Amino acid sequence: MKPALLVIDVQKQFFDESPETARSLTNAIEYINAGIALFRAKNLPVVCVQDIGEEDERVPGTTRFEVPESVKVLPSDLHIHKTYGNSFNKTPLAGALRELGVDTVILTGYCAEHCVLSTYRGALDHDFTPILLRGSLASGVAENIPFVERIGDVISYGALKQVLG
Description:
Elements: E1 3-8, H1 19-41, E2 46-51, E3 78-82, H2 93-99, E4 104-110, H3 112-125, E5 129-138, H4 144-151, E6 154-155, H5 157-164
Parallel strand pairs: 1-2, 1-4, 2-3, 4-5, 5-6
């Protein structure tokens, strides 16, 4: 198994959607950053996926589009910009992951029941093994996170750490 960590749609604009969304994102960032640190320690790829929403003025170069400073992605990480919920749809993500020899994607981010779940299904369509990192998903509706976790394969941070050695 060669995994990559996908950090999906953790962008400044989404913190303004509601207090519940901001809380959920803030809580998820702790696990996302732990995942990033683990992947860096193992020299494994970290991918930052950012959603473009022209109608919301969430476009590259705007504050709304940017990843919060609290998220430890680096400019040297692979950055994918998407316009659909599924991070694989009409993006170079699948090809870039294949070039890196990746066969498994560990999914984190926002919004659990929309873009994360769509990307989970997209990974399957592209013959990647998708796994959700428990604690790293965010949503404006807290009940939707366990719903998504029941649908997909989930791993805890501790178990991921053991698997990666």
